[in-house]
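Researcher: Going back to the complex we discussed earlier. I've cleaned up the inputs and rechecked each line, so this should be the final set. Can you rerun the prediction on the complete assembly and write out the structure?
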Amino acid sequence: MATVAVSRPPLGGFSFDNCKRNAILQGEANKVGFNLPAARKTGTTICGVVFKDGVVLGADTRATEGMIVADKNCSKIHYISPNIYCCGAGTAADTEMTTQIISSNLELHALSTGRLPRVATANRMLKQMLFRYQGYIGAALVLGGVDCNGPHLYSIYPHGSTDKLPYVTMGSGSLAAMAVFEDRYKPNMEEGEAKQLVHDAIAAGIFNDLGSGSNIDLCVITKGSVDYIRPHDEANKKGVRLNDGALQLTGDYKYRRGTTTVLTKAVNPLDLELVEESIQTMDTS
Amino acid sequence: MMRFCVLQNSRGLHSQLKDSVPVAGLCPQGAYGMQDSLRSGFTSVKNELLPSHPLELSEKNFQLNQDKMNYSTLRNIQGLHAPLKLQMEYRAARQIQRLPFLPSSNLALDTLRGSDESIGFEDILSDPAQSEVMGEPHMMVEYKLGLL
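Model: Rerun complete. Updated structure for the full complex:
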């Protein structure tokens, strides 16, 4: 708060008191040439596909803070309700809190209506909240689930627009993943096919985008069951290349005897006399 | 006596100025004709007029704007009686409160609004029960009564 004593009772929610101070600090820091710390983002590849009986969601697991990897194994597929899951790209805190708030609201709503929540409800709640904050909440989401009307998949942008599509990708690696989808997507795929397609799309994002990396997480949602596979595949294991049967790339620095040829060898025994021998017990109590 | 609510268009440039929103300590003259930094903080002319963040005004007025929109839709669908009756109930429920420096549950108001069945940022961030500043009782009651 900017003042010590207040004349009105404080309201909950966002407080804009420090915005001017922050702007001044930013200006001062730029003058000196110093960068203020960046928010942790999930420069990401997330995607989803609708198949015959349900929806498959996939995500990578790297979280970045500027140019540094902040979390090598973060979980980007968030729980919304037993039949609805949501992948999040953008600012990590924003996606986390937004999905938690919507999950709580959806739970209260479901208790009030007495029915399993619908994906369209979650979509509507998310887009109304994100539009209210005009894009300042940096959360790009892929929402998927199965309800009484079948499987549904939505993509939700930070400013509040949504798309309902059979296959969607979001994040910095979305172009790489979308290329895979555009090539190989067919309507009404089987579960195994759909999982392989999502796996390959995320792998394309991981290998071709700097902001995505580490493992591939999958979430398969069908009517009545959810299979959260974490990790589905460890695409980036340190020192091991993926393709041909785990080729070891990290070297072994122990050299066998004879690697360096021996030219001469001279042994000088040292004659030592035993002068004194004493035993000191250690206190091991 | 019934009062008709006037539906104003709250968009437009003049709502970008803080003028249209009540700001505590708007008149910089304190008790002795000087800037009262303790109560109203550091100020400048720009501070008084322009909001510090593009969302500040829209968030401050969010509930009001939602209500206006809902009332006007309700009026168009069901006639004038519907928003009038609802507003009467809201006014009655809003009066059930303790003095400003004490926490009030606002139970009736929450139930009418439906905010007892939803969670938003106002429940998670800046919880008034855990605020860092304390309101001075006399000042808060005077402000509420318009004597300040």
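Model: Worth noting: The CA atoms of residues 18 and 111 of chain A lie 38 Å apart.
Researcher: Good, that matches what I expected from the previous run.
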